[in-house]
């Protein structure tokens, strides 16, 4: 049996897909499983024990033309509710083509009737979640397990899978003291209910907890990382770490503090407690569907404004949550 799985969006989303991928491997142990991803998120699956081949859709490459290369596939599963993944899976013309979309995407549902043989509907919807605070939204991991269950998976795996190479752990050992607090810097710390000055003030307050404090940042956090470095408030500021070293650094931490980015799911995958500051808008949905998974955590909401009182209260809540988790 030949199986094609696709997830071509972000790093964090592919991490949340790893239980579904592992479930396909356990359910079809003799199958040849290929994962189609993007050049951006491929780092998540480079050492995956659950796939036989990893192929990458190039930026700007036609997904239908790419999918047409896999006409020998028996089963194709789109693990993202995106047009790119749906078109890729449809183009395989596999006897079984499975995917999912959101219940209120009526046009997509209509178009996918002919493209897929099986369509799973997700009830996740930001507007509905905000209007109904008591509504329970399934975690992304559980939504994806429902998709592979529709594809025939009968042995489900619930743990995230993110193997780390020994050389990446060795590199992280040098960079990050065991039990440190790591704050992942990114653009969202500087806007919409948070500011650069407040982020630096938060780091100062976190240092009072007596743990080494390390800041990490990728491209969207460079400006903030420079400001933090100039302020001299961290024991180290690490930018643009290779993905494996970044994950291994999180594994050494006592707690990770981050805004809502892929860092949330890296910390979950390596089993590190975390505090996540979600955006004020769409908090009800995001804090459930993309919350930390199977690790001790605190999920907080950004304030609605950037008044001094609101920012001070937000920082106090973060520090209290980190204190509780350490």
Question: Can you walk me through this structure?
Answer:
The longest helix is centred in the last third of the chain and has 18 residues, at 308-325. The chain folds into 2 domains: 2-150, Glycogen Phosphorylase B (Rossmann fold, 3-Layer(aba) Sandwich), CATH 3.40.50.2000; 166-325, Rossmann fold. It is α/β, with parallel strands linked by helices and 326 residues long. The protein is globular and about 60 Å long. The chain has helices spanning 11-27, 63-67, 83-92, 106-115, 126-131, 140-150, 166-175, 196-207, 222-231, 243-252, 263-269, 283-289, 308-325, and strands at residues 2-6, 32-38, 53-57, 75-78, 96-102, 118-122, 181-185, 213-217, 236-239, 255-259, 274-278, 297-301.
Q: Keywords, please?
A:
326 residues, alpha/beta, Rossmann fold, 2 domains, 6-stranded parallel β-sheet, 13 helices
Q: Based on Cα principal axes, name the global outline.
A: globular
Distance between the termini: 47 Å
Q: How would you state the average pLDDT, rounded? A: 95
- The CATH architecture category of the largest domain equals 3-Layer(aba) Sandwich
**Overall tally of structural domains:** 2
Biggest β-sheet: strands ordered side by side in the sheet: 3-2-1-4-5-6
CATH superfamily of the largest domain: Glycogen Phosphorylase B
CATH topology of the largest domain: Rossmann fold
What percent of residues are in strands?
Answer: 15-25%
Binned, the helix content reads 40-55%
Number of strands: 12
Annotation field: number of helices: 13
Coarse structural class = alpha/beta
């Amino acid at each position: 049996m030949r199986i094609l799985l696709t997830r071509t969006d972000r790093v964090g989303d592919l991490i949340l897909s790893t239980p579904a991928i592992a479930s396909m491997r356990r359910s079809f142990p003799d199958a040849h499983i290929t994962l189609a991803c993007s050049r951006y998120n491929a780092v998540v699956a480079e050492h995956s024990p659950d796939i036989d081949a990893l192929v990458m859709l190039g930026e700007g490459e036609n997904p239908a033309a790419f999918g047409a290369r896999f006409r020998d596939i028996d089963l194709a599963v789109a693990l993202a509710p995106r047009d790119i993944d749906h078109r890729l899976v449809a183009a395989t013309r596999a006897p079984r083509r499975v995917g999912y979309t959101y219940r209120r995407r009526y046009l997509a549902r209509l178009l996918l009737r002919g493209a897929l043989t099986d369509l799973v509907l997700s009830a996740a919807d930001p507007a509905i979640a905000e209007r109904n605070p008591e509504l329970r939204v399934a975690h992304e991991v559980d939504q994806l397990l429902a998709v592979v269950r529709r594809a025939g998976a009968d042995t489900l795996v619930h743990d995230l899978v993110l193997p780390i190479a020994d050389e990446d752990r060795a590199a992280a050992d040098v960079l990050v003291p065991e039990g440190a607090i790591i704050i992942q810097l990114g653009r969202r710390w500087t806007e919409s209910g948070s500011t650069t000055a407040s982020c630096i003030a938060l780091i100062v307050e976190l240092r009072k907890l007596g743990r080494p404090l390390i800041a990490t940042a990728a491209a969207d956090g460079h400006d903030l990382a420079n400001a933090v470095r100039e302020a001299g408030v961290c024991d180290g500021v690490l930018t643009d770490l290779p993905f494996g070293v970044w994950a291994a650094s999180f594994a050494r931490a006592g707690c990770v503090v981050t805004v809502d980015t892929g860092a949330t799911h890296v910390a979950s995958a390596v089993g590190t407690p975390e505090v996540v500051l979600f955006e004020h808008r769409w908090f009800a949905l995001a804090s459930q569907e993309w919350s930390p998974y199977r690790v001790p955590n605190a999920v907080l909401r950004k304030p609605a404004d950037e008044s001094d009182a609101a920012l001070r209260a937000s920082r106090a809540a973060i520090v209290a949550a980190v204190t509780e988790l350490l």
